[in-house]
Give the backbone structure.
Amino acid sequence: MIDISESVMQFLLAFVVVVPLLGAVAALLPAPPGLKGKSPEQAVLRHGVTVTGVVLIAAIALALGFDHDHPSRMQATTDISWIPALDVRIHLGIDGISLPLLVLTALLTFLCALYSYFKMPAGPTPKAFVALLLVLESGTLATFAVLDLLLFFLAFETVLIPMYFLIARWGGEGRTRAAWRFILYTLLGSVVMLLGLLLIGIKAGTFDMVALATDNGRSLTTSVQLIAVLAIGIGLAVKTPMWPLHSWLPDAHTSAPTVGSVLLAGVLLKMGTYGFVRILLPIAPDGFRTFAPYLAAFAVVGIIYGSLACLGLAKQGAKGDLKRLIAYSSVGHMGFVLLGIATMTPTGVNGALFANIAHGLITGLLFFLVGALKDRTGTTDLDTLAEESGAALYGKAPRLGGLLAFGAVASLGLPGLAGFWGEMLALFGAFKPAADLSRPAFLTFMSIAAFGTLLTAAYMLVVVRRVCMGVVPQEAPQLADVRSYEFAAWTPLVALTVIAGLWPKALLGLTDPAVQQLLAGGTR
Amino acid sequence: MSSVAQPLAENLVQSVDWLAIAPPTLTAVVGLVVLVADLFVGEARKPLLGWVSVAGLAASALTLLPLLGDDRSTFCVDGTHACSYTADEFTLVIQFLVLGGALLAALLSVTTLKDADRQLPEGEYWFLLLSSAAGAALLPASRDLATLIVALEVASLPAFALVGIRHGDRKSSEAALKFFLSSVTATAVSLMGISFVYASTGTLYLTQVADRIQHVDGQLHTLAQTGVVLTLVGFAFKTAAVPFHFWVPDTYVGAPLPIAAYLSVVGKAVGFTGLILVTVVAFPSYADVWGPALAALAALTMTVGNVGALRQQATRAYSAVRLLAWSSVGQAGYLLVPIAAAAYSGHPQRSVGSTVAYALMYAAVNLGAFAVAALVGRTKTANRLTDYRGLYARNPLAALLLAFFLLCLAGLPPGIIGLFAKVTVFSAAVDAGLGWLAVIMAANVVIALFYYLQWTALLFRAPEGEPVRHRLPAPLTAAIALTGVLGIALSGAPQLVLRFADTGLF
């Protein structure tokens, strides 16, 4: 949109990856004179807001400077040799697929830092909290910015330790167990993924994603592709998470602090689906084609399973936890994303990428809202909240209730909001999958997934009825309505949800050319 | 008359390339000097011996510098290319690893000896440490089976004495005895293997063995095969490969901590160097024999080691040292993977280069972890894992560095060098088509993460009671700082060690 020279763009991209890391180190050091603030705690939290804010500005500048006429071209590329022995290159670049995710990550991390500045989660010192948050940001941004398989793996692993500590130190009940499950599941998945990445790199002679994507799997035999897709797919599927590898997610979400849940759902899960699109689709298309029907089958099972689990949790007397419910709904939503990818059509993959972003915005917002609800009422247990008649949030805190209802209807895919387009495009893709995939199978998957949307609507409406509606009792304790910092943290998410819903072309215009090229044979 | 005597004398008196053999020789000479000086130095001046030893090791490491870049050989048989001592790139890298490891162990020892307050005989201690280091430095340069065994024994015999050096300590003596008996058995088996190889080939020089063992008489074929397998046993023992690992935990706990650190790094280096020389240089044509054996050994070793480490109870006495001991067994398994892969791959030299790269990473971070353990052990003599709780509150830098070292050992960022060292090992296995071994290793990486991360998490817990700050002794600080700087520098530029995985070392 605006003309920024290529070298500045290169600098900006390297900047957004490196600055959070430097910021993390700086957070551990004592504050320099002049920046001491009211207390060391306040100073370091402010430091977090500043660094993530600067990164967000840089990311927005990247988005503005991005050549929107050629979103399929890798832009702002840097390519430096780092470890010649392993043929690892510091190869960075963004195209229409990674740019939206990069901006989403920078935005969500900034909002989380802002939210924590006012509402620090209970736990040990904020110093470590801010440092871990920044390392997490660096790892996720790097995942979306790197174009080298081993570097991708490094970035993928970088997020594990910070997220582990965020859950284990600042989390709620059952946090130790949840943190262990999170890290052991993901690590087990990612070492298997490493084997697949190495197999590809060794057989094809390069770890460079662009070169591999251009090659489009021609230098890999079908059997190598099959093994590689299976190994890498398992690693990515754990992260996504795909049913039946999802069981770490509900625990992690339930125990994580609000900020941790937001980032986990909004950003970390995207690393898995991004890997599917960026690595598996272009690099090993033959292998992926073989597994695509299975992936789609698991995806629709995930959709139905997630919805049924949510319905079960939303039922009266089920002692359902709201955070757990949203976590299960994530399993369902990510099922749509995986279904879209499995169709191997531009429509489906575009839908998947759209649903990715939409899920990040909406679920991020929902976790924020539930976190705020927990701060006010002290619980996320639906039965305790709703008692007999309903929690009557509309009456007690109308704005909070309204936002929660907004998040819920956005999540169920109401047309006009962000959640709609992604899932609809994914279903469209399944209606007419790629030529060499079995159409009857995908038609079945499509109808099951469509049924899943009905179930999603059902449980979301149940949640709205039980939490937002109801009679306000006379002696009900007063609930604080939305505070100004909460407005500041949530408004961007609400606004973007509406914008993406009303003007999907803003996003699809970016992803579509890149996806077309990816499926047709590589990125240039 | 004189014209006949001239060549005869030349034959008898070999010309020796003193520069090439300087690193092990200097170490040994300094060891002797310290032993003699001990007789004449008063009680008050004993710490001087330690500093002389440290300086000697540093000087020996410096003598590696002029040797860089050219392949020197000495003690050669005329008219052939068979030499007993070769200082090629492989030799220099391993000698650097050995001497550097010994130097760090010596730095740790200075504090330990001071704290022991004359309970340990200083002169003997330094002499033994230096002799063992000299043997270990000789080993990678040896290119005949006799020198190899002599070097192995020179490296091991002083180690037995070092393990049992705490007079009157029952645990220490028992550990030494266990270590001694099992090690001697292993060496004896190795010697028998070597005699079989000699019987079937008629030579001890590795290159000649490699040549002739391909054409052994059909009748002697079984003998040669048995010889190959038995020869490996002695070195597998030193590497602490399963089933020769049972001495490790008790020995590490019984020995003074710096000696445990020394054994975990230099002892292992001795073992895997010997294995590399024997397998890749001497018996390449028997790859179908030792390849599967080493692969199975690697899988067993890492699994047993990691499961053993996983079962450690945090409250038991010396559990931290025990955990490091078991984890070192697990790490030995990773070290063996590329050697096994060398049997199957087209570039055996590159494969073993992965072992060397991994060993360099492991040496730096494992010694670092031991250095922090030595620091904690000064105030909490039982050195339990629970004693590390809240280390961050007492000593933030040491805690952060220990966390970094442990994550390097686990192979997770921010321990980038640990991650990439593991990647090279994985890629050696995948390259050689050892997919099953890579999968087993992957499972082991996850098991290992569990206990490394548990320990790491403990460091940042809220401490029980008031944190007591204590002064750091300078040598210990130097050791921690040195390993920390090494680890962080390597994480920034992994190419420094990983380049060995890319080039032929011999």
Chain B touches chain A through 35 residues (CB under 8 Å). Chain B is about 70% helix and 0% strand. The longest strand of chain B covers residues 72-76. The radius of gyration of chain B is 22 Å.
